[in-house]
Amino acid sequence: MEFTLGQVAQILQGKVEGDENAKVSRLDKIQEGKPGGISFLANEKYTSFIYDTEATAVIVSETFATSKILKTNLIRVKDAYSGFTQLLEAYSLMMKTGMEGVQEPAFADPSAQLGSGTFRGAFSYIGKNAQIADGVKIHQQVHIGDRVKIGKNTIIHPGAKICADTVIGANCEIHPGAVIGGDGFGFAPQADGTYKTIPQIGNVIIEDQVSIGTNTTIDCATMGSTIIKKGAKIDNLVQIAHNVSIGENTVIASQTGISGSTEIGKNCIIAGQVGIAGHLKIADNTTIGAKSGIIKSVKEKGSTLFGYIAMDMKNFLKSYSIFKNLSSVENRIKELEKKK
């Protein structure tokens, strides 16, 4: 996409010094800037590059003062770093939402309902009686199962699989390779030592403004629904089992596993590689440190847990300070025993 500096300045509520009609089509580092690129200067140690950069424009703060003649145009804003971040956000949104129409080959069952302004990438599939709202972007090789419902302006990235009966809200983002609504891990042990599969007949409900990371898996419920509530952010390679509930605005980092029927409260922070056992309840505003193991419910709101098996972080650190000195304590005990 190509924009004039005047258009960029309007987005950033800034002012152009130079040619308002000059055009830019990409974002560059200031030291690597080339014609057609736009960069920014927010750190003083990069100031020297502004006099040599070939970028068409550089975003600077209102207070920036030049000491030499510039070859580039300037866009002055209140804060250069915030301004460039705003531009990145606008660029990313336009790249994600600017597409419309159908790339062939793509398949949508005749019974599926497709809203206006949607995009369907090549080799995407939409099943029977699916309901796709306005502005939804379904990228290449995405599978949308039967009776799936997807809300406005949601983006499904390449290779994601949305299984039958899943409900996804508005303004969500499902990243590449995620699988939403696969069977939960349900097997009943038999007298002869074998296991019998328990049919998983529920679904997954994802509310508005949820982000699901690359290659994350969210299992459908055995009965009822696995629920990811509004504003939750889930990282890559996370496993969420059947009938789990994730509260509003909770964030979960990579490689975490949450066992079946556990309820996570709102505004929780769960770090990487955390393991949470099944049928537990985790209170609102709980923070769980990386690689922690949770085997019992957390009832007190605002708790901070760490360790395996997880305990109050302060108690863990006190215990660890003793544990790491055990070998020296043992040696001292042995020396004392020799003196008897």
Automatic annotation (TrEMBL):
InterPro entries in UniProt: Hexapep, Hexapep_transf_CS, LpxD, Trimer_LpxA-like_sf, UDP_GlcNAc_AcTrfase_non-rep
CDD domains membership: LbH_LpxD (cd03352)
Annotated UDP-3-O-[3-hydroxymyristoyl] glucosamine N-acyltransferase non-repeat region domain residues: 22-89
Signal peptide extent: none
Subunit field text: Homotrimer.
Family that this chain belongs to: Belongs to the transferase hexapeptide repeat family. LpxD subfamily.
This protein's UniProt keywords: Acyltransferase, Lipid A biosynthesis, Lipid biosynthesis, Lipid metabolism, Repeat, Transferase
The protein, known as: UDP-3-O-acylglucosamine N-acyltransferase
GO molecular function: UDP-3-O-[(3R)-3-hydroxyacyl]-glucosamine N-acyltransferase activity
Job of this protein: Catalyzes the N-acylation of UDP-3-O-acylglucosamine using 3-hydroxyacyl-ACP as the acyl donor. Is involved in the biosynthesis of lipid A, a phosphorylated glycolipid that anchors the lipopolysaccharide to the outer membrane of the cell.
Record-annotated active site: H242 (proton acceptor)
Domain of life of the native organism: Bacteria
Gene3D superfamilies noted in UniProt: Hexapeptide repeat proteins (2.160.10.10), MurE/MurF, N-terminal domain (3.40.1390.10)
